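Ticket #4471: structure output looks truncated?

Reporter: J.K.
Steps to reproduce: submitted the chain below (66 residues) through the standard prediction queue, then opened the result file.
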Amino acid sequence: MSEKAINKPTHTAYVVTGKGDKANWHEIGAVWVHKDGSGFDLTVFEGISVSGRIVCRQRKPKPATA
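Returned output as attached by the reporter:
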């Protein structure tokens, strides 16, 4: 893995409430892979209290805003 890839978050963390089509996804933080590839660090945004199911999904580029 390159050093550049390690410095950028690889996943986004969400708290998911509800189920199926009625699920609500709330972005709560970012996830970085460890240098050795065998674990992750999760940083939760300041001021957020979390409980329940946390889901980490691979990041996708955000669309550019005009």
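Triage note (M.O.): checked the attachment and the full token line is present. Residues 3-7 form the longest helix (5 residues).
Status: closed, working as intended.
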